Amino acid sequence: IMSDPKSVVNRKVTTEAEQGVSGDSDETVKENPGRPGSSKMDAFTSMVESLGQTLKEVASESIRCSSPLKTLDLDGIAEYIKTKKPKNIIVMTGAGISTAAGIPDFRTPGSGLYSNLAEYDLEDPQDIFCMDFFRENPKPFFKLAKALFPKNIKPTPAHYFVRLLEKKGLLLRWFTQNIDSLELLVGVNKEKVMAAHGSHASSTCLKCKKKYDLAWITKHLEDPSKLVPYCEKADCDGVVKPDIIFFSEALPRDFFKRIVEDFPCCDLLIVMGTSLVVQPFASLVDEVDSEIPRLLINREPAGPFRGPIEGGRTTRSSKKALEACYGLGIKQSNRDVFHRGDCDDGVLALAEKLGWDEELEQMINQGPPTNLLL
Ligand code: OAD
Ligand code: ZN
Q1: What is the helix, strand, coil percentage profile of the chain, to 5?
Q2: Phi/psi of residue 252, each to 5°?
Q3: Which of 78, 175, 210, 316 is buried most deeply by CB count within 10 Å?
Q4: Ligand 1 atom index nearest CA of 129
Q5: Which part of the chain is the Deacetylase sirtuin-type domain (predicted)?
Q6: Distances from the Cα of 63 to the Cα of 53, 144, 297, 331, angstroms
Q7: Contact (Cβ atoms closer than 8 angstroms) between residue 93 and residue 271
């Protein structure tokens, strides 16, 4: 069941832990050198200090050793791909991967869909994807579906990049929240694509459950004289709804099977163009093993990629290492890379670092190998 988006709470770095208390006790001891027991105190203080130092070194070393990436940036990811040769890469995408194809995302203020539904007269913009609302009044949804129906849309370089991963035998699965089918249009095998929120590829009559294919719904959505599609079966007047997942609807059964089968094998996670607020999709990022590198390419930080890791270079001090080990503050990630910017720029930069840029450009120039919409 999809739950309403929840904003991710930005955890605050605890600074108290960085203050330390040994300075005070040092001073006290120095000011009273002759008091009884001061040599024991000195010994005790120095023992505590040396223990603290050892702990810091161990913690720091263990983080450095356990980090799968040399640097927490695209260079680190490129180096990881070249040297560790991951072959089970999982890609997770959202609406941001398709904005360059002319499809608006949902939550970007101003251009996002949810800021532009005033004419639909909805109490809450997300009602447009609510089953209860749809059963009562399917018109706003179809008005939007017609306005947005992807006509002549082209996959973006970010889509081609995932196709390239597949071509190189490195793609385990592509989990997408998008319903634009650009993953298939770019030529990725449909077995490799998990459309978590469904797609327009099929539609179902809400009354008799008769299935309709992409061509049927395309014809309907492209016909300006029609709005709500109705079932064509004799004696049925049910509304035909594209099989995209609305809030409160169950996700495809395959989705959960894929999570259980795929995520434990994942050796690199690449997340692109999503605010990571809609569950359960958003939580998938935590399904990969804790030592597996995760890359987010997005215009803004999202999910666990918020925090003190932007900009790439790791600036871990031993104090931060200690905090990470002993839970004294925010957990300093040693495997997350947040690359701020457009998905297309990010994948082109990564492809260049990998020496794949010519191949990628060639694919983009050739255009999509299939045309699903005709
Ligand atoms: P959102 O609109 O919530 O998030 C899109 C993210 O992509 C934002 O963080 C943008 O800053 C970023 N972005 C936009 N264009 C970009 C670009 N060219 N390059 C990089 N980043 C870019 O969309 P989703 O996370 O996909 O559900 O939303 C999840 C779900 O919420 C959708 O599947 C949809 C919606 O309710 C259904 O339709 C059922
Ligand atoms: Zn029917």
Answers
A1: 45, 15, 40
A2: -55, 145
A3: 175
A4: 39
A5: 67-357
A6: 15, 49, 24, 11
A7: yes
| E strand or H helix that includes residue 269 | strand 268-272
Q: What is the pLDDT of residues 79-118, one digit of tens each?
A: 999 999 999 999 999 999 999 999 999 999 999 988 888 8
Ligand nearest to the CA of 241: 2
**DSSP characters over 93-150:** E-GGGTGGGT---SSSTTTSGGGS-GGG--SSGGGGGBHHHHHH--HHHHHHHHHH--
**Residue nearest to ligand 1 atom 22, measured at CA:** 96
Report the alpha-carbon distance of residue 7 to residue 320 in Å, rounded. 26
Interatomic CA distance for residues 112 and 96, integer angstroms: 10
Please provide the DSSP assignment of 322-350 as one string: HHHHHTSSS---SSEEEEES-HHHHHHHH
User: Cis omega (within 30 of 0) on the bond before 252?
Assistant: no
Q: For ligand 1, say whether the CB of 273 is within 6 Å of any of its atoms.
A: yes
Q: How confident is the model at residue 330 (pLDDT cuts 50, 70, 90)?
A: very low
Catalytic machinery residues: 197
Strand bridging mode 193-195 / 171-176: parallel
Is 130 known to sit in a ligand binding site?
Answer: no
177 lines ligand 1 (CB under 6 A): yes
CA distance 225 to 244: 23
What six digits make up the tokens of 184? 């298939």
